[in-house]
Amino acid sequence: xxxxxxxxxxxxxxxxxxxxxxxxxxxxxxxxxxxxxxxxxxxxxxxxxxxxxxxxxxxxxxxxxxxxxxxxxxxxxxxxxxxxxxxxxxxxxxxxxxxxxxxxxxxxxxxxxxxxxxxxxxxxxxxxxxxxxxxxxxxxxxxxxxxxxxxxxxxxxxxxxxxxxxxxxxxxxxxxxxxxxxxxxxxxxxx
Length: 191
Fold this sequence. Notes:
The protein is mainly alpha-helical. The protein has one domain: Jann2411-like domain (Jann2411-like fold, Orthogonal Bundle). The protein has six helices and eight strands. A two-stranded antiparallel ribbon has the order 1-2. Strands 3-4 form a two-stranded antiparallel sheet. A hairpin with an 8-residue loop joins strand 7 and strand 8. Helix 1 packs across helix 3 and helix 3 runs parallel beside helix 5. The longest helix has 18 residues. It starts with 8 loop residues before the first strand and ends with a helix. The N terminus is likely disordered.
């Protein structure tokens, strides 16, 4: 029999804790660096050096990996990013398959104990995939899947975690928002 856990509520707003938010942001970073074909109206070719691209993205986002990322890890993360990209699009079946494939299981390990969704001996890729996938599942599971968004601007596939109060963010950033507004303005002027 399934158990339903109510979302935490403060003045009607569901809250996502910092642990979940951190892993959802990593999921978005992996997807945006390794699994999108169009960025801000331009074709995005896969990075030639995935490890270097990820390390640069980590630095931009202030993410500090607990273990050194190898080139082999970066190559394996491409498949993880593709599965997580499907989750941002609402494909919970693909997300469930990724959780099983990377052995996501809640447990406490370390000193002091830390909640994680991977086995203590898991390699970096399986650990990140399990933790990021579980965080996406938790966001979807508390009814906040609408916060896992793709940019609505033409020619942009970047994903993001919408943390606005009313979940109304539509674009990955200001440049896409400006492009969309300019396109809409030009369309109105033509009519």
